[in-house]
Design brief:
The protein is mainly alpha-helical. The chain has helices spanning 5-17, 24-48, 54-64, 75-95.
Length: 97
């Protein structure tokens, strides 16, 4: 699904930028954008690759970044989580045909 590729680059770029010391508002916006992108990708992954772990990984990422019940972690841990999350988005977009 090629029309999903541009959408996947948005969270990758935003998550890589999140390792920089940015204002708190940036991270709040990140908590809005990442869950939406994660859920869109999870639905796509479930439709196109239902027997892989991708749908569940993206649902987990949507829960981790959700703004309604935020999960509090130290800044250093969030940096690692953001890098791993951007890597997961990147790996998934490489699997798209």
């Amino acid at each position: 699904m090629d029309n999903l590729r541009p959408l996947i680059w948005v969270p990758i770029a935003l998550l890589l930028l999140a390792v920089l010391p940015l204002p708190y508002g940036y991270y709040m916006v990140l908590r809005l954008i990442i869950p939406v992108c994660s859920l869109i990708v999870a639905v796509n992954a479930y439709k196109t690759q239902p027997d892989t772990i991708y749908p569940y990984v993206f649902i987990g990422m949507a829960i981790l970044y959700n703004p309604l019940i935020p999960i509090s972690l130290f800044k250093e841990i969030w940096i690692v989580v953001n890098l791993i999350t951007s890597g997961v988005f990147y790996i998934y977009q490489r699997t798209l045909k």
